[in-house]
Amino acid sequence: MVQSEPVCGGKPAQPADEAGRADATVPLPVSARTGPISHAIFRVARLHRMLAGQLLRRVGLHPGQELVMMQLWELGPQRQTDLVRLLDSDAATMTRTVQRLEHAGFVRRSPCPTDRRATLIAATVAGQALRHEVERIWAELEERTTGDLTAQQQDACLGVLNRLESNLARAADTRT
Predict the structure, then answer these.
(1) For residue range 64-104, what is the model confidence (pLDDT) as tens digits?
(2) Residue 26: DSSP 8-state
(3) Burial, 60: exposed, middle or buried (Cβ in 10 Å; 0-12, 13-18, 19+)?
(4) Around 76, how many Cα atoms within 13 Å sit in the side-chain half-sphere?
């Protein structure tokens, strides 16, 4: 890959990636050539989260908060520790997320009747009212993400992503 020269007063010209495409938003740096898939995952995840944030902002949520709400809508009130496990989160992040959702009026916390050490998180009426809009936002996010991919290409993409997730989960398990 040839180094691009900055344009006077502007951004550097967009170089083509390894496959000759110039449509990537972030060029593959020479130092990342040994990990082009990892670099692509990073770029895609960053853009996906940014778009999700823009869409979710319409209903007063931040990325990740809708995932908590989805679990509550699907399963009903949950112990906070169960939400940590279900969403593969950590306790500190979940505590902050629940606090923000509670402050916004979308969830309420209450002591667990069967375990005094645990806290139950439940969607409020306002939180339940978000469901239809969040589902619509996720449909829009999916449509914008997949763009002009055919159903067959979407299935193939999902298969590859599931395989990558499995590989990463296995690698993470062996390091702990």
Answers:
(1) 999 999 999 999 999 999 999 999 999 999 999 999 999 99
(2) S
(3) middle
(4) 0
